[in-house]
Design a protein that fits this description.
- There is one protein chain.
- The protein is mainly beta.
- It is built from one helix and nine strands, in the order αβββββββββ.
- A hairpin with a 5-residue loop joins strand 8 and strand 9.
- It is globular.
Length: 171
């Protein structure tokens, strides 16, 4: 009986250790979530992620990019996405945050916890923004790769690893 209990506990612990990787993009860097016509991660692709006018270098440090498009659903659900890479989250969790700007409207669009393993990962942030609602057309996305670390007073303090301000077309 004890052997079965120990084996069952071991299986549960092993599956719990793998589950966060599958949800956050997996150990192989592939996205588990819905992509928005983004570039292939394991192959050649046109219109790949760009950082400051240059394609993301597969051997660089912390990077962040924004795809050149996003979507607006009939129910005012906004989805924007891109790619990131971070190397080290040992000092605290790392997040990809994003703000969508269109005309005089500005709203935070979700946030994604990053997997900092040195591999490229896709991020997808979604939010329902009804008032004022976004419309298809030109907009800007301000995305930030941010790490929360313990400040001098013990409170979480943001540290900015990478940022991108990009023009997007909402569809």
């Amino acid at each position: 009986m004890r052997v079965r209990l120990v084996l069952a506990a071991g299986v549960l612990l092993a599956s719990a250790a793998v589950a966060p990787l599958a949800h956050a993009g997996g150990a192989d860097g592939l996205s588990a979530g819905p992509a928005l016509d983004g570039p292939a991660l394991n192959g050649t692709a046109l219109d790949g992620p760009v950082l400051n006018g240059q394609a993301l270098d597969s051997h660089a440090a912390d990077d962040l990019s924004v795809y050149g498009y996003g979507t607006v659903g009939n129910d005012s659900t906004v989805t924007i996405s891109g790619m990131y890479r971070c190397l080290d989250d040992s000092a605290g969790p790392v997040f990809v945050s994003s703000t969508l700007v269109q005309g005089n409207r500005s709203a935070g669009i979700g946030g994604t916890q990053a997997v900092c393993d040195g591999h490229l990962h896709e991020w997808v942030n979604t939010s329902v923004v009804k008032d004022p609602a976004y419309r298809p057309g030109a907009a800007r996305v301000r995305a930030t790769l941010m790490q929360l670390t313990a400040g001098e007073a013990g409170l979480p303090a943001p540290g900015f690893l990478a940022a991108e301000d990009a023009a997007v077309e909402l569809r």
